Amino acid sequence: MMDHRLSQDASLPPLSLYVHVPWCVRKCPYCDFNSHGVGAGAALPEEDYLQALIADLDAELPLVQGREVTSVFIGGGTPSLMSADFYARFFAALARRVSLAGDVEITLEANPGTLERGRFAGYRRAGINRLSLGVQSFQDAQLAALGRIHSGDDALRAVEEARSAGFDNINLDLMHGLPEQTPTLALADIDQALSLAPEHLSWYQLTLEPNTEFFSHPPVLPAEESLWDIQDLGHARLEEAGLSRYEISAYAQGGRCSRHNLNYWSFGDYLGIGAGAHGKLSRVGRDGVMAMERRWKVRQPEAYLRRMADPRGFTAGRRLIDPRELPLEFAMNALRLVEGVPLSLWSQNTGREASLLHDRLASARNKGLLVEDVDRLQTSPQGLLFLNDLLSLVSESGDSQG
Known about the structure:
This protein is α/β, with parallel strands linked by helices. The protein has two domains: 15-263, Alpha-Beta Barrel (TIM Barrel); 327-400, no CATH class. Helix content is 37%, strand content 22%. It is built from 15 helices and 16 strands. It has a nine-stranded mixed sheet with strand order 9-10-8-7-6-5-4-1-11, with helices on both faces. The chain has a three-stranded antiparallel sheet with strand order 12-13-14, with no helix packed on it. Strands 2-3 form a two-stranded parallel sheet. Strand 4 (68-76), helix 2 and strand 5 (99-110) form a beta-alpha-beta unit. It is globular, with a radius of gyration of 21 Å.
């Protein structure tokens, strides 16, 4: 677990880079991300977007001078719509500007329905060493209900080609609680995924988010009892197969946890570049006090590209995190981790004495929401199921401290 030291005499948190590619072939009805459908075969402004990303990065560099980047994550949208040459040129520019860790993890999200044969090999040559494939399901009827553009066979071929291209670190995104899904169908998806021996599996429940088509026109989802059965049976199947759960919805082989996501959940720092990208950066002031700022970029792709010639740059907004918000901000991330974090990180990340939490932590342990370890902030299996209740205890303690 990353032990972030946030005092003046210690280092800043690890630094990651997030790159957003906002285009996709068709926006899925459940998706609330900053993605914009362009249709199959559409020509994307690769050159313009590449130059914008580099300019965006250049504007951010003074904020992280001298810091090493430990991971890069390219998300979307559908980043696999961009060519291998696009990424080769981007990483060449990146390497000239920042110090990359010798073992830097570089992840690309890919949609099995957008991949041309041979493209994975180009991505690998460009420097990408981890793939996250948005499979969601291997069953064509379920994929159609989700509005996905790929088939189950497309997903199988994508994994096969990725292996042939030399990728030895692959994540499969898999959803459960799909329209009219039964526990049997959910387990069939898990078994198919396990047959492909992924190093990492993200297994999460479909939720109906505001501002999505599914929210406006909800599909028929499984009953709550069926959802509990799916979660219990699916978790047991994944653990039996040797994939250990290290976060609420993330499972991995030994040593293959996503370092990028661990940095998020451990309250690390990250630059965000690209249309709609968000970042979080820490700095130590002259008074020795740690300040944390959230930053976000212009959301619409066309407006983002126009900012190339705009003296305002690409940033749409920035906000210092109010110290009163830090307990909830930190807890919302750290408590997702199955192994938790040392309790000492509470003080280092929030500026609050851990002793002030004593009564509430004792209450949470009595309710079975935390493990019985007074030196760690670690959610119990029961607490992972009722995380909002646990967060309420922690956030209320933050409010009570003024």
